[in-house]
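Run log // design_07
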């Protein structure tokens, strides 16, 4: 994790992540404080590579502010966006983090971002020390899997205009924050077709 070594730690407000965790499952003050003590706040500049394909991901990061993207390169070398992580969301490679295997994806910041990191070893130690945290993260994983399932069904079953409409409903601020070609790759359409969809919506407006 070379990018982490040269980034400065920052003072941060843990209010957002505290509310985020408490919405999943109640934690006593001491339990929550113990978790927060193990987070590593980092200010990460725009366009920083947090993870490269082939590396092992040994961290999970809560996005306190900013925007992060995970992506991979297909067999033709095309950039395919898997996820956008905005404020109040987590980003990692769950398979690599859990199994210690090389990642098949890359992760980068699209904006200057403030991330709160937890390492794999620290997380496992905390689970043993604070069993209630296991339930919190189980719920977080379930919610993430549900979101991935919804996206899979949308990609398979919904026409592109409906996928874009649902994308705008879920992420209304994203079109102003990320390049359009990344949104197109996330939706599984060409940038040209996305431009046509945007034109139709603007025409209706």
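design_07 sequence
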């Amino acid at each position: 994790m070379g990018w982490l070594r040269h980034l400065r730690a920052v003072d941060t407000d843990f209010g957002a992540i505290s509310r985020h965790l408490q919405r999943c499952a109640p934690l006593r003050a001491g339990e929550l404080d113990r978790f927060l003590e193990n987070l590593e706040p980092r200010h990460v500049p725009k366009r920083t590579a947090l993870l490269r394909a082939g590396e092992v991901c040994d961290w999970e990061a809560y996005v306190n502010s900013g925007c992060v993207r995970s992506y991979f390169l297909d067999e033709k070398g095309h950039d395919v966006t898997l996820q956008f992580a905005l404020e109040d969301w987590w980003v990692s490679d769950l398979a690599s983090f859990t199994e210690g295997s090389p990642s098949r994806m890359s992760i980068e910041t699209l904006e200057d971002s403030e991330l709160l990191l937890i390492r794999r070893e620290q997380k496992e130690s905390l689970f043993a020390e604070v069993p209630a945290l296991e339930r919190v993260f189980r719920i977080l994983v379930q919610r993430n899997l549900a979101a991935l399932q919804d996206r899979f069904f949308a990609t398979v079953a919904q026409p592109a205009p409906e996928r874009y409409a649902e994308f705008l409903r879920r992420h209304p601020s994203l079109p102003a924050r990320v390049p359009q070609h990344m949104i197109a790759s996330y939706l599984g359409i060409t940038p040209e077709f996305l431009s046509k969809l945007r034109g139709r919506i603007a025409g209706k407006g």
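The chain has two domains: 2-142, 158-205.
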